[in-house]
Amino acid sequence: MDNRQKIQKVTEYIDENFDQDISIETLSQLVYLSQYHFHRLFTAINGLPLYQYLRWLKLKRSANQLLFSRDKSILDIALCAGFESHEAFSRAFKSVCGQTPSQFRKAAKWRYWESIPYSITLKDSMMIKPIIDSFKGARLAVVKHRGDSSDVPQSIEKLVRWTKLNHLGQPKAGEVFMIAYDDPKTTDPEHFRCDIGRVIPDDMLLTAEMEVSEQFLPSGRVAIAKHLGSHETIEQTVYAMYQNWLPSAQEKLADHPCVFCYQNYVTEVPESALETDIYFFLKN
């Protein structure tokens, strides 16, 4: 393995053992390096020392739990993140975003969490090979987000709140979707549009006074590209599909926006371990 492959192996190990005690000795032995050299190699390639990298991942997951898991106390979230007290967690959290956990839970300023402070190993865009499959369609309850993409977490929180009020339980892998009408990188914030929804039973009645509306994803053929890692970098996979796969494929895209299908959730895993399937609807 070259040095980047070694650090990639280490980050994959961290993703798989995130809630365990991870020692520098274990990680350095994993890639056959002395601890002295491992520290420097990790920092040089990842852009952050190991300790800061782990702390960022834990705090980012905590930010999502504060917003989307309101049944959890701040102390429970702090302990889950490896902090021994509410006070220590509060100081570390505020040092990143300028808000205490309680302030963030009341009025989240998400923009501070959008930037990724570590380097990510970019996927070789020439190697992206989507799976062509048949999609059976889905009935969704959606929150329509209109406006700055940095406020999307607030729209997601509305969907989470509605889900709990209606006793639907935690969605399974592949039951939450985002319909991406616009690219936040190229769209003025006030004009950005997306819908965030979850699968609901066919017999569930939605009424006009609810915070959600009914929407159907059509059945049909789709090209599915898998994106691994932070949602903040998902455009890398989307652009690679347009730049490299589509020109050489014997397929044409249907008149339908990209759809992101989430295979795990930000309250459960570190952002580096997120898995998202990107659906490109195809003409028959």
Main attributes?
284 residues, alpha+beta, eight-stranded antiparallel β-sheet, 37% helix, globular
How would you portray this structure in words?
- By secondary structure, this protein is an alpha+beta fold.
- 37% of the residues lie in helices and 18% in strands.
- It has 9 helices and 8 strands.
- It has helices at 3-16, 24-30, 35-46, 50-68, 74-80, 86-97, 101-106, 152-165, 234-248; strands at 131-135, 138-146, 176-180, 193-199, 213-217, 220-228, 258-262, 275-281.
- The chain has an 8-stranded antiparallel sheet with strand order 1-6-8-7-3-4-2-5.
- It is globular.
Helix and strand topology:
Elements: H1 3-16, H2 24-30, H3 35-46, H4 50-68, H5 74-80, H6 86-97, H7 101-106, E1 131-135, E2 138-146, H8 152-165, E3 176-180, E4 193-199, E5 213-217, E6 220-228, H9 234-248, E7 258-262, E8 275-281
Antiparallel strand pairs: 1-6, 2-4, 2-5, 3-4, 3-7, 6-8, 7-8
Q: What is the percentage of strand-forming residues?
A: 15-25%
Say how many strands there are.
Answer: 8
The major β-sheet equals: 8 strands, antiparallel
**H/E series:** HHHHHHHEEHEEEEHEE
User: What is the overall shape?
Assistant: globular
Rg calculated over all Cα atoms: 20 Å
Low-confidence stretches: none
Alpha plus pi helix count: 9
Short description:
The mean pLDDT is 92.
